[in-house]
Amino acid sequence: MTYLSKSPWVIHYDGSSCNGCDIEVLACLTPVYDVERFGIINTGDPKQADVFLITGSVNEQNKAVIKQIYEQMPDPKVVIAIGICANSGGIFRDCYNVMGGVDTVIPVDVYVPGCAARPEAIIDGVVKGLSILEEKRKASEVAKEASA
Ligand code: SF4
To answer: I want to staple 76 with a disulfide (CB 3.0 to 4.6 A). Which of 1, 131, 136, 143 is the partner?
Structure first.
């Protein structure tokens, strides 16, 4: 596992899910799965968050909210789309107001499959996301040193 230079703070947003994937995200915080053992902290404040977890599909009503949360998060950051609805629109794909998956509005770093996504798959996706976050941190430090 990648060495982390600081505890990652995670923000979770439910796009337009059936709540199945949200329940599995919450399960990751329980003592059974205990993601806090990786130093992960759940926050409601985008300005403190490094990792953006999204469940559910993107629609005309929530696309502005997703963009706003993403833009409020400081760089570097990673986005994890959880469940097939967040990956591609899933079972809601053909609804009149659904645009598709999260990558129709913001860049996605990790796609976690499943309907619902299982806690083990969510934790695996978060660990992958943390490796990507560390790579982005290192790249931004190198860029800062090069421009100094
Ligand atoms: S992927 Fe399945 S469980 Fe998750 S929000 Fe969509 S329909 Fe619900």
So the answer is: 136
For residue 4, the CA-to-ligand 1 centroid distance in Å is 31
Confidence check: pLDDT of 23 > 60:
yes
Give every CB contact of residue 37 below 8 A, 6+ residues apart in sequence.
none
Does the pLDDT of residue 146 top 90, yes or no?
A: no
Q: What is the DSSP letter of 48?
A: G
Give the tens place of pLDDT for each residue, 57-70.
Answer: 999 999 999 999 99
- pTM for the model stands at 0.93
Beta carbons of 66 and 13 less than 8 angstroms apart: yes
Question: What are φ and ψ of residue 73, in 5° steps?
Answer: -75, 135
Class (C level, CATH) for 9-147: alpha beta
